[in-house]
Amino acid sequence: MKQIITLIFITVYCLFIGSLSAQIQVGDIAPDFTVTDVHGHTHTLSDYTSQGQFVMLDFFYTTCGPCQYYTPQISQAFITYGCNQGDIVILGIDYGNTDEQVLQYEQTYGGLYPSASGLEGGGNAVVSQYGITGFPFVCLIDQSSTVVEIFSPPTMQVFSYYFPLYGIEEMECITNIQNPKLNEAFLIYPNPVSSTIYINASQGTIITIFDSRGNSVKKAIMDSENYAIDVSEFKNGFHLAKAMIDGKMYVKKFAILK
Q1: What CA–CA distances, in Å, run from 109 to 141, 163, 215, 235, 237?
Q2: C-beta separation of 218 from 229 below 8 A
């Protein structure tokens, strides 16, 4: 009898411990967290959900082959659904890497959405909270902080099917950092871009392109009102275009995604 009781205790204990470390599932309440992305911005899950936004988390690490493959798909969703300014916020949660390694990952594999490194941004703690054992792991959290979907594979085709079911609508990224009413003075298209970007502004406008780290990668004087710039050799990621027009500075953000 004593042996039976001991066996039952061990079984219950193992099940309890296993439940603590189990990977998060649909229907679970997502633990709250705060992370700092590789560009220094802080993100708290409950801040977004309390504002009525969905949150999609992409758990990854930088040498994960499938993660590298699907990152451009998630970046396309980030662009298509408003660059975290609409119904959904997309965050990358890295495991085991530094800020510098994640920055290089973003540049190499087209990561456009904010990501927190495991070692410096708090990602490792979130991976532990969520019990993540397989990568990539991409889940959708609703406004009540409930996990409502786990995406496998995490592709645009899958996102385009599921997002509308939750009322998540497509939205253009707001690219003008200054005054949206002045958009007609300075236009950039297409956005995102893979090879050639076109800038519409007055002839003689000085254009400077900066990468995500603030380094100047291109400077030109527009010799026509519709000026083409080859960006095929630039790295993937967000870039800024600055234009001087009638003594005023205009700044627009655009994404290179190849």
Answers
A1: 25, 24, 19, 9, 9
A2: yes
What are the C-alpha distances in Å from 224 to residues 5, 87, 190, 198, 220? 85, 38, 18, 11, 11
What is this structure's pTM? 0.74
Sequential DSSP letters for 160-176: HHHGGGGT---B----B
Higher pLDDT, 122 or 75: 122
DSSP state letters, 94-141 = ESS--HHHHHHHHHHHT--S-EE-TTTSSHHHHHHHHT--SSSEEEEE
CATH number of the domain at 21-166, out of 3.40.30.10, 3.30.160.340, 3.30.420.10, 3.40.50.300? 3.40.30.10
Average pLDDT in the 210-219 region?
A: 79
What does the pLDDT look like over 235-255, one tens digit per residue? 888 888 888 777 777 778 888
171's CB contacts (< 8 A; 6+ apart) are 81, 82, 85, 86, 87
Q: What is the distance, to the nearest Å, from the Cα of residue 13 to the centroid of all Cα atoms in its chain?
A: 39
CATH number given to 180-256: 2.60.40.3580
Give the DSSP H or E segment for 56.
strand 54-60
